[in-house]
């Protein structure tokens, strides 16, 4: 099975305006500090609108009818009419927090990748009139996890740093066992969920165009990270050779499936963080 690693930049880089309008100078800030919109590189700005409804902790609707999915994060899920679906812990709290942040406010949009999903929702980063980055505020409060995709990778290091600071402080979801970090050895208990799994890579192999990061000797039953051919190109473009993960402690995030044991597919490098021994 395969595993991904991503480089996490902590502390974050904060870009402060220099005297010349087009220039910025880097300065360092503590992990957990939320960056204002004008200091977030890599986004294309776009007109937004006034918030008229909040669906859950990561979805809202603007006055012009556009439904916005806050890209890059996953707040605790609510049933939203789905039969038999049980609300995740702190789902209502996450929704209320987003309402407090945004209800009645005019927000601007920032795009860093694909702009829409198959449900017709707009995929965007959001900023309020004061320049606050809404995703950053939610992560800082511990009311969401980083949830990225290969076609929407802007600001992932910044979001990971904010998530990590909230987790270290035990804020929000990080005080609830439902969202706890899982060990590679025990990953099979959590099949079907979106999980953060940690462990040491015992072996790296390739077969049929896939790369497999195995976390135990028995590849038929151990936890594995799988990187397919297309994803491997993204790793290589980022200067990462998956073979170099052998012997490293990693944290990977994704949906846990069963394929010769518990497995997470890594579609892009940012799903994987390399941990210190």
Write down the overall geometry: globular
* Helical percentage: 10-25%
Kindly provide the name of the CATH class of the largest domain. Answer: Mainly Beta
Q: Looking at CATH, which topology of the largest domain would you report? A: OB fold (Dihydrolipoamide Acetyltransferase, E2P)
Order of helical and strand elements: EEEEEEHEEHEHEEEEEHEEEE
Question: What is the domain tally?
Answer: 2
**Given the structure, what is the number of helices?**
4
Provide the β-strand percentage band: 25-35%
Provide an overview of this structure.
The structure is a single chain. The chain has 277 residues and is of the alpha+beta class. The protein has 2 domains: 31-174, OB fold (Dihydrolipoamide Acetyltransferase, E2P) (Beta Barrel); 181-275, Beta Barrel (OB fold (Dihydrolipoamide Acetyltransferase, E2P)). It has 4 helices and 18 strands. It is globular, with a radius of gyration of 19 Å.
